[in-house]
Design a protein that fits this description.
This protein has a single domain, classed as 3-Layer(aba) Sandwich (Rossmann fold), CATH 3.40.50.360. Helix content is 36%, strand content 23%. It has helices at residues 13-27, 65-80, 113-126, 147-150, 162-176; strands at 2-8, 31-36, 51-59, 62-63, 95-102, 129-137. Helix 1 (13-27) links the parallel strand 1 and strand 2. The structure holds flavin mononucleotide.
């Protein structure tokens, strides 16, 4: 099985999750390509993988801009090449997991849901089975740091924590059983 672990991380939180995913998949004997999305980065060939995990930090309810730009480019390419078809026929054995890290200061997990649903749609359009959606808490960095103490989720300083990373590993082991 070949896996792609595609992620965007502006302040390092999602990167911690992505690295844990990479480590755990490796321990499970899965060949994994981990790719950090950047402004002028490469376009991975999603269809070359059996399992794709895609994650991002949440910025104004959506994934980071470079992730949105990449997904727009990929969607256009797959439509042009006839890989995205009306009714989105299923692709045997192709699976995806979408995830985010989020601060949730205003409305909690509800403000992370649109970001994860956005990521899921490219895979659903391509005919992948989206087997799970993962939401991990990530502290606010930079100027918004005080939001880590003032929001709906209470004190989220230091998240993702060691316990969060253990949860990541458990979830990765869990999806390998699917
Ligand atoms: C400028 C900025 C805007 C943010 N907007 C949101 C938001 O709308 N909703 C939310 O839940 N979290 C928001 N966050 C918190 C981030 O989603 C959280 O810190 C996440 O873990 C960042 O991931 P990253 O470090 O991988 O980019 C914001 C953080 C920053 C710095």
């Amino acid at each position: 099985m070949k896996a792609l672990n595609l992620y965007f991380s502006a302040t390092g939180n999602t990167e911690k999750i992505a690295k844990q995913i990479d480590r755990t998949l490796g321990e499970q004997g899965v060949l994994v390509d981990s790719v950090k999305v950047s402004k002028d980065g490469m376009e991975p060939d999603i269809l070359a993988y059996d399992l794709v995990l895609a994650g991002s930090g949440v910025y104004t309810w959506l994934p980071g801009k470079p992730m949105i730009a990449l997904f727009d480019k990929l969607r256009e390419k797959y439509v042009r090449e006839g890989d995205i078809l009306p009714a989105s026929p299923r692709r045997q054995g192709k699976r995806a997991v979408v995830y985010c890290t989020y601060g949730g200061a205003h409305t909690g997990v509800k403000e992370a849901v649109p970001a994860v649903k956005f990521l899921a749609q490219l895979f659903d359009h391509l005919g992948f089975e989206v087997i799970d959606e993962w939401y991990f808490v990530g502290e606010y960095n930079g100027k918004l740091r005080p939001m880590s103490l003032k929001g709906r989720l209470g004190n989220i300083e230091g998240r993702p924590s060691e316990a969060d990373l253990r949860e990541v590993s458990e979830k990765v082991v869990g999806i390998m059983r699917v």
